[in-house]
Specification:
By secondary structure, this protein is an alpha/beta fold. Helices cover 35% and strands 13% of the residues. The strands form four sheets. It has an eight-stranded mixed sheet with strand order 9-10-14-13-12-11-15-16. It has a four-stranded parallel sheet with strand order 2-1-3-4, sandwiched between helices. The longest helix is centred in the middle third of the chain and has 20 residues. InterPro entries: Dihydro-acid_dehy_C, DiOHA_6PGluconate_deHydtase_CS, ILV_EDD_C, ILV_EDD_N, IlvD/EDD_N, Sugar_Degrad_Dehydratases.
């Protein structure tokens, strides 16, 4: 098999001279140009992405494995998306990262890719870009932080922030205590140690067959993560010789397995958008309704925050994702291929479940607790809710809407003791979707109004076209499609309207006569575009709605790995 890199390093004459000579400037000897596979290591390291701040060290472990297996590793940076720092939201730039990965892989002399990821959007963005090139690809995630600690108790990143904020508002926690908890929550390298989006997408990469078995849950600072990264470097060289491309590994069955695994994990609703986008890049048919169909009877097996009690460190010690997949095997396609070259069933055959952090299939925490897809006149193209994180008494609810046209308007009102809100109110947020914000930020889990928190109210129904952090919880309806900024029905809701939520019936309904909605629709004017230049403009002109994965319309599908024309 002729490798792509031969088109650069195997040439004679002027162009071969140029390509080899400038690589030799870094101290590489003649042997690396002997036809061995060149492995591109896409690194999303950045000090502005705290979750990924240790990935340079992880890259060294991958390189060791590549050298051991007879390959030539070359590490390069791609855009890093830090969920905790980047404004207005990292999701605005997920597709830009995918373009960076895609063009870096296609334009350079690499035969295969190792994706070093961690923080929420770095895993799906990297996978989307790699999918469009379709080289042999293997994911190495950075791993979760150690359990947070505060006053002798475990606390979870993100989840504790939402809870402590509510406790401060309710008078149960002082500002001094709130400040003291900061240092104990994030106390090591790694991404969120709850089953937030970063942990969810690490598990999704493993469930799709794109990460070595057991990789997703190893804590970032555990030496076993570095050992597994070294093995990943060895394996990607083998995959190159086998021409085991991403499209050969990932199939519709792989996505079905991942969606079912996400339900069993109590994973993030963000997985819906990311899996839809990755599938579209690969040309694998996958629709929003598949998430409901595949998970209707899947048991909730993993007792992790925000839906449960434990954290990722405990999950790893309990057996990690392989133990979950082994429990789920009767509901999975065990013949799905993985990057090991073996099937999913073979990979998890010896996995052991060692504690009740992971429940046996017959003794779940609940059944049908995955992401539910809602439809109705308020969400004709769909909306989602994370059932395991919702309050059971609110899964069927009718209430008076209290509408805000921006998250800033809500934040300005949330502490007002005169706010016209009670426990039955449905909080509605508009203009927080892909185009409206732009980027669809994680603001859907609106803070409980102080007035209600002081009364002991822990949850109310919230509806928006936004996303929420995978670390968040509550009866929160998200991803309402079409979004309000493009004239979706959410834009027509007014304070005082009645909103009906019926999760068992998969219904989200605005109880307003159709003639009144038609009148409002005729009066509606699109909001002013918040950005009119650069990436934000390109994004706003081309982003798809949440039910299609929020990719850019011209990026859907593959462009392949054909070698480009000469540069000199």
């Amino acid at each position: 098999m002729k490798l792509r890199s031969h088109e650069w390093f195997g040439e004679s004459g002027r162009n071969g001279f140029i390509h080899r000579s400038w690589m030799k400037a870094q101290g590489f000897s003649e042997e690396v140009f002997d036809g061995r596979p060149v492995i591109g290591i896409c690194n999303t390291w950045s000090e502005l992405t705290p979750c990924n701040a240790h990935l340079r060290r992880l890259a060294e472990s991958v390189k060791r494995g590549v050298w051991q297996a007879g390959g030539f590793p070359v590490e390069f940076p791609v855009m890093s998306l830090g969920e905790t720092m980047l404004r207005p939201t990292a999701m605005l730039f997920r597709n830009l990262l995918s373009m960076d990965v895609e063009e870096s892989l296609r334009g350079n002399p690499v035969d295969a890719a190792v994706l070093l990821t961690g923080c929420d959007k770095t895993t799906p963005g990297s996978l989307m870009g790699a999918a469009s090139v379709d080289l042999p690809t293997l994911v190495v995630t950075g791993g979760p932080m150690l359990n947070g600690k505060f006053r002798g108790c475990d606390i979870g990143s993100g989840t504790a922030v939402w809870q402590f904020t509510q406790d401060v508002n309710a008078g149960r926690m002082s500002e001094a205590e709130f400040a003291a908890a900061e240092s104990g929550m994030s106390r090591s390298n790694g991404h969120c140690m709850t089953m937030g989006t970063a942990s969810t997408m690490a598990c999704m990469a493993e469930a799709l067959g794109l990460q070595l078995p057991g990789s997703a849950a190893i804590p970032a600072v555990d030496s076993r993560r570095y050992g597994l990264a070294q093995r990943a470097g060895q394996r990607i060289v083998e995959m190159t010789h086998e021409d085991l491309r991403m499209s050969r590994v990932v199939s519709r069955a792989s996505f079905a397995n991942a969606i079912r695994a996400n339900a069993a994990l109590g994973g993030s609703t963000n997985a819906v958008i990311h899996l839809l986008a990755i599938a579209a890049r690969l040309g694998v048919p996958l629709a929003l309704d598949d998430f409901d169909a595949y998970t209707a009877d899947v048991p909730w097996l993993v007792d992790l925050q925000p839906s449960g009690h434990y954290l990722m460190e405990d999950f790893y010690y309990a057996g990690g994702l392989p133990a979950v997949l082994r429990e789920l095997l009767p509901l999975l396609d065990g013949d799905a291929l993985t990057v090991t070259g073996a099937t999913l069933e073979a990979n998890v055959a010896d996995a052991e479940r060692s504690s009740d952090v992971i429940r046996p299939l017959g003794e779940p925490l609940g059944v049908g607790a995955g992401t539910a897809v809602l439809r109705g006149n308020l969400a004709p193209d769909g909306a989602v809710i994370k059932q395991s994180a919702a309050s059971p008494h609110l899964l069927r609810h009718r209430g008076r809407a209290l509408v805000f046209d921006s998250i800033e308007a809500y934040d300005a009102a949330v502490d007002d003791p005169a706010l016209d809100v009670d426990a039955d109110t449905v909080l509605v947020l508009q203009n927080a979707g892909p185009r409206g914000y732009p980027g669809m930020p994680e603001v859907g889990n609106m803070t409980i109004p102080r007035k209600l928190a002081e009364q002991g109210v822990e949850d109310v129904v919230r509806v928006s076209d936004a996303r929420m952090s995978g670390t968040a919880y509550g009866t929160v309806v998200l991803h309402v499609c079409p979004e309000s900024a493009v004239g979706g029905p959410l834009a027509l809701v007014r304070t005082g309207d009645t909103v009906e939520l019926d999760v068992p019936a998969r219904r989200l309904h605005l109880d307003v006569p159709e003639d009144e909605l038609a009148r409002r629709r005729a009066e509606w004017q699109p909001p002013e575009r918040p950005h009119d230049r650069g990436w934000a403009r390109l994004y706003g002109d081309h982003v798809l709605q949440a039910d299609q994965g929020c990719d850019l319309d011209f990026l859907v599908g593959q462009s392949g790995s054909a070698v480009g024309r000469q540069s000199h």
